[in-house]
Design a protein that fits this description.
The chain has 10 helices and 15 strands. The chain is of the alpha/beta class. The chain is globular and about 55 Å long. Its EC number is 1.14.-.-. Catalyzes oxygen-dependent 5-hydroxyuridine (ho5U) modification at position 34 in tRNAs. Keywords: Oxidoreductase, tRNA processing.
Length: 309
């Protein structure tokens, strides 16, 4: 009898590709129908500069979607990172049209033509261990709070739009040095490298496949990653081997919470946490408490608990 552990039922695909997508608007409806027909849920963003998103479904459904996307003009080099989830990590399927597939807000940046040099996960440790390398986490502060690479700079941004401003302020510290950047799946740091190169800084590198690929490919014993990696779905975080992490989401402010955060006296499931307790009124907390009660009732009934999502 086969006693090996079974694979979790849902395959998760984080994907992106910077490519010129002329007429991307026409892809929206057919792509949504393709996904919905196969029970796939998640979000895909389409823009003239390419595609970005994370989706989940059965292994067969995700395989069909990736093959479908790679057959579209310009998307044959689609970057895909796979992981698994015990429960469906998304509530619905959304295909959205955007000006940018990752919003930086700077005109004229073209990662398809001018991104930095890819660094494979197996070579990343050597690069960031070089004392002449400046290592930058291009994610937002709430993501960095769960984990990052040892010695990486945290720009303390609330959104990726703020990243160019941070670079401009710290430009003198980057010039004449190697600059290594990373993000969750590779898309933000790819665009960030194009911006930094546009400033005339030449030795710019980024982690191929992002943190997700590194956690999958690099053995924990050799890893320079500390903590967990925030992901934008109901799993909240993943750790080495892309195992589901211990973080949970505060349903009031959407910040990720570590087990230590959840021991705070200001933490109440679905209502408040150590970060937002003083940002909300009693009326807010009463409203959140009622929403949480309804979610729990729906869950007990076996219904889709997506109130307020």
């Amino acid at each position: 009898m086969d006693t090996s552990p079974s694979e979790p039922p849902f395959r998760v695909a984080a994907l992106y590709r910077f490519a010129r997508l002329d007429g991307h608007e026409a892809l929206r409806a057919p792509l949504a129908a393709f996904c919905c027909a196969r029970g796939i849920k998640g979000t895909l963003l389409l823009a003239s500069e390419g595609i970005n998103g994370t989706v989940a479904g059965s292994a067969q459904a995700i395989c069909e979607l990736v093959a479908h996307l790679q057959a579209l003009p310009g998307l044959d080099g689609l970057d895909v990172k796979y992981s698994h989830a015990t429960d469906m990590p998304f509530h619905r399927m959304k295909v959205r049209l955007k000006r940018e597939i990752v919003t930086m807000g700077v005109e004229g940046i073209d990662p398809a033509m001018s991104a930095g040099t890819y660094v494979e996960p197996s070579e990343w440790n050597a690069l960031i261990s070089d004392p002449d390398t400046v290592v930058i986490d291009t994610r937002n502060a709430y993501e960095v709070s769960l984990g990052s690479f040892r010695g990486a700079l945290d720009p303390q941004t609330a959104s990726f739009r703020q990243f160019p401003g941070w670079v401009d302020v710290h430009r003198a510290n980057l010039e004449g040095r190697k600059v290594a950047m990373f993000c969750t799946g590779g898309i933000r740091c790819e665009k960030a490298t194009a911006y930094v190169k546009a400033l005339g800084i030449d030795e710019v590198f980024h982690l191929k496949g992002g943190i997700l690929k590194y956690l999958e490919a690099v053995p924990q014993a050799e890893s320079l990653w500390q903590g967990e990696c925030f992901v934008f779905d109901e799993r909240v975080s993943v750790s080495h081997g892309l195992e589901e992490g211990e973080a949970e989401l505060c349903r009031a402010c959407r910040r990720p919470l570590t087990p230590q955060d959840r021991h705070s006296p200001h933490h109440a499931a679905g209502v408040s946490c150590v970060y937002c307790h003083n940002e909300r009124s009693d009326a807010d907390r009463d409203r959140y408490a009622e929403r949480h009660r309804q979610v729990e009732l729906a869950r007990k009934r076996g219904a889709a608990a997506h109130i307020g999502s």
